[in-house]
Amino acid sequence: MLQTLYIENIAVIEKTSIDFTGGLNVLTGETGAGKSIIIDAINAIMGQRTSRDIIRTGEKSAFVSAQFEEVGKAAEETLRELGFELEDGVLVLQRTLSANGKSVCKINGRPATVSMLKALSNSLINIHGQHESYALFSPETHIDYIDSYGGCEELLNSYKEKYNKYIILSKKLNQAASDESERLREIDLLQFQSRELFDADIRPGEEEELEAERTALMNFEKISSLLNKAKLMLDGDDSNGGIESLDIASNAMQAAAEYNGEYSEISETLTDIYYNLRDVSESISDAVDNLESDPQRLEEIEERLDLLNRLTRKYNCSVDELPGLAEKTQARLEELLNYDKNRDELAKACEAAEKQALDAAGKLSRRRREAAKTFAGRVREEMSFLNMPNVTLVPSFEETGLNPKGIDKVELLISANPGEAPRPVAKIASGGELSRMMLAIKTVLASADEVDTLIFDEVDTGISGSAAEKVGLKLREVSASCQVLCVTHQAQIAALADTHLLISKQVEGGRTFTAVTALSRSERVKELARIIGGVNITQAALSHAEDMLNR
Questions:
Q1: Parallel, antiparallel, or unpaired: how do β-strands 2-10 and 453-457 relate?
Q2: Which residues contact 513 (CB under 8 A, 6 or more apart)?
Q3: Quick one: average pLDDT of 545-550?
Q4: Does the first or last residue of the chain, that is N or C, have fewer Cβ atoms within 10 Å of its Cβ?
Q5: Please, which residues have CB within 8 angstroms of residue 549's CB and are 6 or more apart in sequence?
Q6: pLDDT category, 353, cuts 50, 70, 90?
């Protein structure tokens, strides 16, 4: 569960550390105090996309840190897959947001990526905001709820693998069945390209070899002059060359060594250098003898390099990639020439892949239909508890062609009043009914989801009175199996909290500051009275708040 959330320079929050507990944690405060900023900070640590505008005015960066304890098995497994481990049972996620748009992430102090935070957060926290209720208007989301409840992930992944294979083969088959004249035009083009590339007979590394040889031929006069100069310095004109002088010096040191053995090493070194220089001189002589100007060879090299340059420009690749391109061109040509044979084989493979995908989709559909009945029944029970006793919920299935989610089009149809036929959610549900329906769905899915923390951001939208109290009781019930954080404006919900946090703001020196405070019992009474009575807190409101806490 989420133990501590530390926020620095996020919007109007300069610095604050929030300690959460197990059970139901409620956050209340005046409108605009900064409750949504807490959710924004949690979204940031979950790896969600954030705007640089979230950084406090005048600051260069913002920082969020979240410490988790008693991490569930799903999160621990994901952590290992990402290459991290828990440290003494504790998980710390950190993210720094910079004004230049860059983001620095860490997991237990080690560098990480935003995508890693996102992958990990899926098994740590599930946020339900006001906008998510309106997602119920879109039938496409309903199938995901049923899949989650029915544990369809393995069947769905198996289906997707077969479906993707079928789609790839189907595209290839459609391409193979394209216009015959287009196939003949491509054959004609490939035959020319294949012949051109194979006739060029290009070797890897050939370009570098040719350029080196061209450089040598173009600088024949310079090379000849330099070689002769080097030989002259070593051999001399008729005498007094470097080698002859070294020979004299070597003989002198050899004679000196006969009188004093200390000079033996110098004498031997000079002797070795003398013989090495003689070898060098002979090598230079051979090089001079072999040196020749070959204008015809230079012309051949220029023509060859020009061919290589034209081919690289034409096919938009390097010289060393041309041989491989020749092979690919030939392979594609043979595929087109063997069109009928390949097309028949491809059609059989495509037919087999389609059958496998349909079989997998059928298994998935049967699991969904079974799960949908139970799911709809359980959601209806939860909605009945939430002051919608006459609600009817019916899963509607329509078979479609193969698509990324199978062969099912699923929609939850609802009737809120007796005698009315179930209809699409978007046509009859009010804001309050949407909120309660989504809470009912989240309650049912809480047992299927392996997340440690559920966050409800103003789930009480559009409800009041006894319905709000029922929502609070349901949140408290859910909090028995996982940690629940709830941002609310309803006193009935806040009164049921295990931990009540007040979000308040104040202005100092022309700047706005937001603080988060854990309330004592007496402070809770005052906050509940404020929610009930508004600006002027009466004794009646205080008594009512006290009574709510006692109950």
A1: unpaired
A2: 12, 13, 14, 505, 506, 507
A3: 88
A4: C
A5: 495, 521, 524, 525, 528
A6: very high
What is the largest distance, in Å, between two alpha-carbon atoms of the chain?
Answer: 131
d(CA 110, CA 158): 34
- 3-state SS track over 331-350: HHHHHHHCHHHHHHHHHHHH
Residue positions counted in the chain? 551
CA distances, 435 to each of 39, 388, 429, 439, 460 (Å): 18, 12, 10, 6, 7
Cβ contacts of 305 within 8 Å, gap of 6 or more? 207, 210, 211, 214
Q: Report CA Rg, the chain.
A: 40
Render pLDDT for 123-168 as a digit per residue (tens, 0 to 9): 888 887 656 666 677 888 899 899 989 989 899 999 999 999 999 9
Amino acid identity of residue 308, one-letter, is: L
Helix and strand totals (H; E) in the chain: 20, 15
- Nearest Cα to Cα of residue 489 among 125, 133, 131, 33: 33
Q: Which of 131, 136, 107, 134 lies closest to 46 in space, CA to CA?
A: 107
What letter represents residue 437's amino acid? M
Q: How far apart are CA 95 and CA 105, in angstroms?
A: 4
* Every domain of the chain and the residues it spans: 2-124+451-519
The answer to whether the beta carbons of residues 337 and 330 sit under 8 Å apart is: no
- Copy the structure tokens of residue 244: 């002859």
Is 493 in contact with 509 (CB distance < 8 Å)?
A: no
